[in-house]
Model the fold of this input.
Amino acid sequence: MLPPTTWMVTGANRGLGLELCRRLLADPQRFVIAATRSPEEAHELQKISRANPERVHIQKLDVTSVEEAKAAAEQVARLPIIEQNGLDCFVSNAGVCSGGPRTVTEMDMDELKDCVNANTIGTIISTHAFLPSCGREKSKAGSDWYNLHLHHELHSEGFTIAAFLPGYMNTKMAHINNNYDDESMMLDPAVAAANSLRLLDRLRPEDSGKKWSTQTGLEVPW
Ligand SMILES: NC(=O)c1ccc[n+]([C@@H]2O[C@H](COP(=O)([O-])OP(=O)(O)OC[C@H]3O[C@@H](n4cnc5c(N)ncnc54)[C@H](OP(=O)(O)O)[C@@H]3O)[C@@H](O)[C@H]2O)c1
Done:
């Protein structure tokens, strides 16, 4: 299978999303739509875009906003390369992590709402908006049940849906929660991005509907 040429990554301004964009662009065949909720503050992305002016489009997108997701999908659909090729791969990477207690009896309800809103509802909103642009293939990380439903609905149309576990990475998110503050135990996000792309490049249609550890490259049970 030839590697995809048009990619979209949400939450692309830092952490894993930024490293995925960097690594994708190392291959001159790839065009990257880098989505961030604040393009004007995404200085690293702007640098990457200046270095690859023909192959990067920075897109404003807060994944929790239905209106913004619809508008973003319309803008992306009008890009000449998307009009011509469609979107090969959609990576739902944006997410937040609660810094509060991890037990169900102690968790803070407002933090829980924020997490569900960004990680689950945000994945669904953004994926739903960009589905029409996805022609051949689609890969994402997101909520498990949503992945499975997408797989059952879309696999027969040629979509490949995969959930990725990147492992504990040394990003801003990891430092929100003190459980993961031992940096020697954390992956560099650049390494995690390389792991993810290595796995994505070897996914076959029959791998759809499965969950993967990008660190080991092995399937993990749901
Ligand atoms: N770090 C870990 O150890 C770890 C482990 C397992 C899974 N993951 C998953 O890996 C993914 C990337 O995490 P990371 O470690 O790179 O975290 P990170 O450095 O905190 O980056 C999170 C990214 O998500 C964006 N984001 C958050 N809410 C958003 C929203 N409503 N709309 C659009 N963008 C939004 C952030 O943008 P802003 O800059 O605008 O906030 C940022 O770009 C997440 O899905 C996370 O759940 C991480």
About this structure: Residues 49 and 169 are 24 Å apart (CA to CA). Strands lie at 6-9, 31-36, 56-60, 89-91, 162-165, 210-213, 219-220. The chain has one domain: 6-220. The domain at 6-220 is CATH 3.40.50.720 (Rossmann fold).
